[in-house]
Amino acid sequence: MQALSARRGLCRLGLLGSLVSPAMACAREPDAVATPTPAIHTGPIDASGSPRNCLRQPVGAASTLRCWVEWLASPALAGREPGSAGGATAREGLEAVLRDLSLEPGGVGGSYTQALPRGANVLARIPGKDPARSGEHVVFAAHYDHLGVRGGATYLGADDNASGVAVLLEVTRRLAAAPPARSVLVAAFDAEEPPAYLTEAMGSAHFVAHPTVPAPQIVAMIAMDLMGGNMWPGARTPLYVMGRETIANTGGPALESTIVPTRAMHLRLVEDLPGGRQAFSDHGAFFATRTPVLFFSTGRSPHYHRVTDLPDTLDYEKLAGEVEVVEAHLRWLADLSERPAWRADPPVTAADAAAIADLLAAASGPGGSPEFNGMPRPVVRDDLARMRRLSAGDSTAALAEEDARAVIRVSLRAQCLLAPDDEAPTATCLML
Prior knowledge:
alpha/beta, nine-stranded mixed beta sheet
């Protein structure tokens, strides 16, 4: 769901069929696809905001994560729109960091970049320590672009997605010091936001169409998007791990964390929209090729795609806890004795109903979201009761398709309620 997956579910629900006017659509028409030529920025990186300062900070510390976010979401980078000077400065800084970490270039022609119609992906490789498995790669990704300057306002994008890049870089520092068995391709994708979103110009889609390592060597993919916010003020809302159902291999790290609550969630609860399935971030192009994926997100905060998405709005202790959780999952995939295997058409389970029940209980309880009270309260109460009934018993038990659709519908309704009313009025959400 948008509130959980941190992407544009509401704006693309189709949206709710004819219930929403075309004026509410979020995405612009995509620009024409041109010959890939990355923007060239000839000016120096501002030394006071250099990302190399962050490399001198303790690995994984909350202060270090803040350092990365404040660099990427600084006014000097002006929102990192693909093809802009700010986007190019961000790319140059990321390249410098990967070079300082002594990572192998993972881009085109021995470089750290892969040109896009607008902007460029930044790619580096951490060779695996096991010769028998080092030829296989886990792609580890977060997009570094944001909206830039629009309508005279600058959108700095601290949570979307400087937060994801901050976790990417801190986990990468740990992997560089102690590589796993398989190789890791670190990917800071560009051009995730509209107008490139869901087009061949999107950085992750371009990479899948033109991989810089042989496609058969890509065995799994991890994406991170919106990692530092909370879905409503006053509560540390969970980090959601979506896509574990795409991985046929059993086991995996536990989801317990003393710093950040972590929950597994089926991707269908996020992506089965009324107008058809839609992936909301960079994992989508990999999912389409039947590559096992994990998608991490803390959900869409009230600052999503607003000028208020600033570094001071993020929870840095939460980000520090996420470094531990993400690293554990990446090492699990990269150290599996057998190749990660794709699992097709996995069912929605009682555990998925439990995840939604917990969200509804927290959001409608004391200290929860005001969006779940007032007019929505009777519907939320009924939804919560049904989710609790469906979550009873064996958490791994597959739900009947009718019950699975009910869980998905309740999930989408919660997603809708958490969005600002200027995107989807409360009455519209209750019609789902």
